Amino acid sequence: MYQVDIESISQKIEIQNDQNGFQLNGYLFEGDIQVIRPGLFHIIHQHKAFTVEVIEVNYAEKVFVISINNKVTTLRVRDRFDILLAKMGMSDINAVKINQVKAPMPGLILEVKVAEQTSVQKGDPLLILEAMKMENVIKSPVEAVIKELKIVKGDSVEKGQVLIVFE
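Request: output the structure for the sequence above.
Response:
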């Protein structure tokens, strides 16, 4: 069994596959699916035709961006294990909370680009670390608020040293 969240219409669909075929929300899918090419499908369901193209796939997060008759939407798929974990209150078991940035190598802090209590987005530059005569831009691994800066411009740091703490 799978649960599919369709973001564009805020709808959930339950899909089961058994010996009779696909069931959508408990009803047998009575239609036709033809593969035009990998990632592109022609579907006829309830006397309506649909062209479905898979645009982007993230298997790790089970997220699919598709186009249905040229309207793009995102699907989030949960399999039976995800559903079971959610029922047990463990749906975020794979989520890793990153609450600090550590120095990836020894070096010298050339510039700090953020301040405490400021919000950063994933990928925002946090600081510049000079190591082996090269400038390395250290970027935020998450969207967060800076709780504490453990360094200032001119500090020498060691590999693994905590540089920034997030709330």
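The chain has two domains: 2-87, 100-166.
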